[in-house]
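Lecture 7, part B: from sequences to assemblies.

Below are the input chains for today's worked example.
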Amino acid sequence: MTFPPLTRSIRTRLFLQLAAISALLSVALFLVVRGLAETAAEATQDGILSASATSIADALRSEDGEITLDLPYSALSMLGTTNDDRVFYKVEVNGETLTGYDDLPAPTDAPTISRNTFATFDYRGDEVRMVSASRTVSAGGVPSNVLISVAQTRLGLAAISQRISAIATGVGLVFFLVATALSLLAARSALRPLKELTAAVTRRGPADLRPLAIQPPTELEPFVSALNTFIARLRASLLRSEDLIAEAAHRVRTPLATVRAKAEVTHRKLNKPEHRQTMREMIRAIDESSRSAGQLLDHAMVTFRTDSLATESIDMGELVRETVARLEPAADLKDATIRCTIPKQPPHFTGDRILLQSAIQNILDNAIKYSPDDSDIAVTLTAVDTLRLDVSDQGRGFGDTDTNTLKARFSRGANVDDIVGSGLGLTIADEVARAHGGTLAITRNEGAKGACVSLVFPLQ
Amino acid sequence: MRFLLIEDNANLASAVAERLQLDGHAVDHAGTLDDAESCIAAADYDLILLDIMLPDGDGRTFLQSHRRAAKSTPIIVTTARSEVSDRVSLLDLGADDYITKPFDFSELEARCRAVLRRRGGVAANRLTVANAVLDSTAGELQIDGVGQTLRNRELRLLEVFFTSPGQVFSKSYLLDRLFSFSEDVGENAIEVYVGRIRKRLEPSDAVIETVRGLGYRLVAKQ
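Predicted structure of the full complex, as structure tokens:
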């Protein structure tokens, strides 16, 4: 089932539905409030009209066989309002007008003694409400039927009704706004578990393949359990590929090692220069492929680890010293000397030891590879403003190569075709630096030949 | 030096052994951890080369038991995996160093030398010609008791001559011993180093002679 873009959001849909419901409820509330209030106002007017009619009826007298009426002042004054409402009345005795407005229409619904009737109609240009009451008065022993009608314009009622409408509108509007705000909150809170689930999945690195530990609402349980099953499958498949990579490395490198050893033996035994040259080229090709394989593995490992960075406190000075010691034999072979300058108390750095070691090793390895014989490689650790490790060699430098491109995968300098390399070393170092919030800086040595590769980290 | 090579791949083992023998080392080969234990019981080795993946057990187990038994023979692990994390744990388990397959034999030799030097004094490798003594473990040339510390290439070059005094070595042979396969150097480069070791040997009765058209040899002065 697909929805148009606006309503693809569950929240919007939920909100719109709730808002529509509250709008309906608001209108109903408005109608009910206004209806009740108007009925009440009308009932009040009717009550007063009835009282007025009753008080007129009570003032009826029978004198000398004639029915007389001394209209009580209170009968009309009780109807007095501020709204200039006019009052009309008529008293009829046996169909003859005794007093009042002659043209006031007779009620369509004839009243009885026990029941007054009410009517609403237009009279003299205004809408009026009229009550009619009926009495039987005995005049000279003859019972006479007296019909008392009192009518009042409804200006006051209209004013009240208007006020009530305004209040009802206000109440309805406030209700609508409050209900809408509440439905917004409700929509948001109903969807919070979904948001939390999303955050829980987003927060973790791609390498974090533990099942989700959050307690989902019942409705989301099937989804979370499906997700966990998927994560488990992914983890199994990743573990398999890791094993596969290790196994593949073993399978590829062992025969390569055999070939290389045999090639060296053969090279030693050969006499013809052209044969020896061929053998050298073979050995170099072997070195190149094994180096690429190794760095691809390292790179995969770095990518894997940067996603779920281990954090431990590291003595950077010690780490640099260890790594230098590890690579010294390789430098020694070319009579290159690694000179280490490390402050007495280098700051502790929090990061992933294995990754940092890999980065330093790759940079140093490059420096040694490109160093001329009998040269110096300066390794300098400083901790002023930033934690900075400079590895500076006296090699050929980078020539015309754009140093930024060297960080890209499989990218190598324009001047290094004769040296075995995979183009991954600086990529690895760069990725490690960035994973630790630092940068890899590649510069040319000012005024001297050679390159300087630096790892720069913010001090923690 | 005497090596124990623990490696299950017979092809690789024979190639490595042959290559090490070319440089004058003695190599015993053990295909399994069991074999290795009997070799260690029967002979003293200067160095053990241990493959980490073996048919009858993990090389790590061997490392641990070897270290627990407080045996002092240094161990260099050869591994086909190159994960840095792998290397770190190897060193933690007591390996003296590790080298990734396939390895450059001159690098292996450099690492062996470094490990032995770190261990200090074990199996001092002394070669004597006339009054010059070459201690290849310490990387020192002693003449009448006065020691000179040698740079790596000087040492390796002197080692070649001191191992076979009187033998003529061609420039190309010496070149192979001094430079790696990835370095493109002309034969003239060797003259620089021969010049350096001649200077080193000056105070002694040993001298490097040029044999025209053939190469160089080390002889004692008449």
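Note for the exam: The radius of gyration of chain B is 19 Å. Keep this in mind when comparing with the next example.
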